[in-house]
Every structure is written in C-alpha cells, then in structure tokens.
Amino acid sequence: MTTTTPSTDQTAPTDRGGAVRLEGIGKKYGNFTAVHPLDLTVPQGSFFALLGASGCGKTTTLRMIAGLEVPTSGSVHLGDEDVTALPPYRRPVNTVFQSYALFPHLDIYENVAFGLRRRGIKSVKKQVADMLDLVQLGDYARRKPHQLSGGQQQRVAVARALINRPKVLLLDEPLGALDLKLRRQMQLELKRIQTEVGITFVHVTHDQEEAMTMADTVAVMNAGRVEQLGAPEDLYETPRSTFVANFLGTSNLIPGTVDDATPDGDVALTSRGTRLVVPAARCAVPPRAGGALLLGVRPEKVSLVPVEDEARIPEGRNRVRGRITDSSFIGVSTQYVLDAPCCGRFEVYAQNIERDARLTPGAEVVAHWNPAHGFGLDAEQDIDAGVATAGSEGDVA
Ligand SMILES: Nc1ncnc2c1ncn2[C@@H]1O[C@H](COP(=O)(O)OP(=O)(O)O)[C@@H](O)[C@H]1O
Ligand SMILES: [Mg+2]
C-alpha cells in the first residue's frame, strides 16, 4: 500500500491541532433545545462517530464544530485554540456532506484541485495526483462527475475536502445516498483513508453498524444528549441505558427485584418467580436489596434447549422458561422469539451448527446463559427506549 501523507510538511507529529473539545456546547432554536449543553473530547487522529436517530442533534453538533451554526452556550476548541468566535473559513476544518456537490462541468482532477487554485496555488499537480492516489481514482482524473458511480463521486468529495489539509474532517451521513453493498465498501475505504492520513474524522450517522465498523469511539446521541460514549465493543457489551441497549443491536430486558447484592460480587434478583444473577460490576446503577433492576442480555449470548432437556443445562447459568412463538432461519443463525412468563418477548439467536429439530414454534423451552454476560440497568427508564428508532430508515441491522 502506498502511503500518502498530505500533512507531513506542515504538521509535526506532536501537533494536537486536530483534537476537538466541546465544552458545554448547546443549541436552542427558540424554545426548542436541539442540543443540550454537552462536553465532548475527540482525541487527535481518532475516528469518532456521532450515532443517533434522525433529529437527535447530530448535524447541529457537527455544524457547531464547523462554525456553520452559532452555539447558544459553550465553546469549541480545536487543539489548544478556542475557535468559538471564528468564522467557518478560519477554522482548520472541512466538511463532507451526503450530497457530494461536485462541480458538474469540471473533471475530477479540477474538482480536487479547486481548493488549491482558489488559494492561488499554481503548482497543484503533485498534490492532486497524491490525493487521487489516496482515494484510488488516479485513472479517472479526466472524467466528469456524472461518469462516476456514487461511491466514486463520494471519494472525490473526500479528496476535495482533504486537499486543503484540514486538521479535522467532518462527515455528515456521507454514505447515506449509497446502496447497502456500496456503503459497506465505502465504510472500509473511508477507514483506510483515515488511517493513512491520520487526521481526526468526526463522522455522523444513524446507522449503528456503520458507526461500529468505522469508529474508534462512538458517542450515542438521543434527543439532544450524549447517552453514552465509548469503544464500539464496550457500548455493545455494557450499555448503560435502555436506549443504548436497544438502539445498538437487540437486548432482552427483564424487570426484576433485587434480593441480595454485594458490591464486588453477584446480584441476585427475582423476576416473577424466576431467580437470576448478574455481576454487580456490570450494573449501571448500584443495586440495592429490595430495589428494582433491569437485567439485560444479548440474544446471541443465550442458548436454547427443549424443556425436557433442562437437566443438561450446567449449574450456575441463568434460566428463563418460555414457549417459541416464532423462528426465522437467516443463514448464519436462527432467530427465535419466545414468549416468556418473566418478561414477555425474549429473543435468542442460535448459530446454525447442529440444529435441534424440536426447536420449532409451540415448543416449550429453557433459555440459558452465563450470568457474566448479562448487564444491569436502572429500572426507572423506559424499557422500550430506542427500540422503534433503531433501523427505522431501512437499515439492515
Ligand atoms: N434551523 C433550525 N430551526 C429550527 N429547528 C431546527 C433547525 N435545525 C435543526 N432543527 C431541529 O433540531 C433537531 C436536531 O436536528 P439535527 O441536528 O439536524 O438532527 P440530526 O442530524 O441528528 O438528524 C431536529 O428536531 C430539527 O428539526
Ligand atoms: Mg443530520
């Protein structure tokens, strides 16, 4: 792989100019709060995703970083500099939008060269060639935008934004117009480009899989607030709210009452007569004896056996009884829906290795899992938060 480093001559490796720090940044439109005052730090050189359903305030947050929107409160810092009062063109930031807005009458080469020419730079050849190499469009330099596919046009838009050597690249649903397969390819492509140039990317998306595939750190936004921020794996394995548990993938959430809790050990709870266990360290709130708690577990962490085989389940596993109401074979796995007395709907994803022919709709079954794979959530929240919004724009989970 060739390595193009468009920022080497201006940017020392120790430069922190690409770190983004938002302090108490918020935005109101009249009485409506689009973004509640939030603090956010994006480390220099990281691939950061803002993830949330349509209308939760992602674009507004991005536009405040770019200087396209004046915050109602708070400040924006790039590196050590407070840029809150600077106009967009004075900020070392560039934005790529869903609509690539290439100049239709200019060829690819001139589209990419545009930013340099506007700054009065005469010898653009080397930089444009490097940029076209970076996005792997060297052979397309003399084509017009309409002669390229959507994914290729979006790569031109990225090249055009990067040639000005921004310290931060903001991307607002840049892959939204592409079909699913192309979007997957472009996710990997953008990730490669970011790794190669090493500048900070802040990527906005409503697609949870996209955020998890691409970003080092994901901030999950809901109704103008950041609900949780972390590495994709941590968000998925230990969600701290029902919204995150439901919006990122699928979770079974079982309401229970705590019987017994030790701070370092296990929490025992009862849910309609079913005894369950979750490690205290995996609870988002300190569990109190007699208090309510939601026990969460991901469907792929759970195994399923016909009730007549219950004796084969090893000691120490959580068990939930139920009846299969639906099963869908989707190739790599079979997705079962149970009706369980303790919590109503309960989902189990079983890898298709050796399928048990008895696991069909109507069968009485026991679902079981290692307690270490569960997580505990505050029972005061809406148990269905984030359910309806996940994938609501036609995404495949
Ligand atoms: N200029 C504006 N005037 C009034 N309301 C706005 C304006 N821009 C955005 N909003 C509202 O602010 C909320 C957040 O919008 P936005 O940041 O675009 O969300 P997202 O990008 O997450 O879909 C939405 O409810 C939207 O309708
Ligand atoms: Mg938006």
From TrEMBL:
InterPro entries: AAA+_ATPase, ABC_SmlMolc_Importer, ABC_transporter-like_ATP-bd, ABC_transporter-like_CS, Mo/tungstate-bd_C_term_dom, P-loop_NTPase, PotA-like, PotA_ATP-bd. Its EC number is 7.6.2.11. Belongs to the ABC transporter superfamily. Spermidine/putrescine importer (TC 3.A.1.11.1) family. This is Spermidine/putrescine import ATP-binding protein PotA. It is an enzyme of class 7 (translocase). It catalyses: ATP + H2O + polyamine-[polyamine-binding protein]Side 1 = ADP + phosphate + polyamineSide 2 + [polyamine-binding protein]Side 1. GO terms for molecular function: ATP binding. Part of the ABC transporter complex PotABCD involved in spermidine/putrescine import. Responsible for energy coupling to the transport system. Residues 20-248 form the ABC transporter domain. The gene is potA. Keywords: ATP-binding, Cell membrane, Membrane, Nucleotide-binding, Translocase, Transport. It comes from Streptomyces evansiae. Pfam families: ABC_tran (PF00005), TOBE_2 (PF08402). SMART domains: AAA (SM00382). It comes from the Bacteria. The complex is composed of two ATP-binding proteins (PotA), two transmembrane proteins (PotB and PotC) and a solute-binding protein (PotD). PROSITE patterns: ABC_TRANSPORTER_1, ABC_TRANSPORTER_2.
